[in-house]
# Entry
Amino acid sequence: MTPEELNKFVMSAEDFARLKERAKRDLEYDWDTAAEKCRRVSSIYQDWLDVYNRESAKFIVLDIEKDKLYGKLYKEYRFESNLKFDSNKEIESQIKCDPEWVKLSAASSKQKLVVDYLQDTLGNINRLSFSIKNFIEIMKVRGGFGL
# Structure
């Protein structure tokens, strides 16, 4: 994967910030919006599940690309290099310093953060209807509201 392809493939910091803002909006509610938000939880969850699946697939592709690159670099350092290494640990340290490996590892780690965030967001959305129902019950008790 070229650096250009990698940059297009992995979510940018700006896109991730927008994604977090969207999650915040989807998880926020107040007395005026609680009932509508509760009604839409399934739809909101499905939208986020689609994003999660797309970004998880990207992470899997990056992981596969990392494994392929590792194999290629291992072969180069072990069998094709002018330098001779005494152990696998020495070869591994060379691989981890390779610029292409560093870029791919950084992209994979960044994508993992996105996937983990999305997984947490799905959990929050999954609990959203219960939170809203609890919120409505608390508001009824505090203010005597009835629906």
Q: What stands out?
A: DSSP finds six helices and no strands in the chain. Residues 1-7+51-140 form one domain. The first helix runs from residue 3 to 9. The two ends are 56 Å apart (CA to CA).
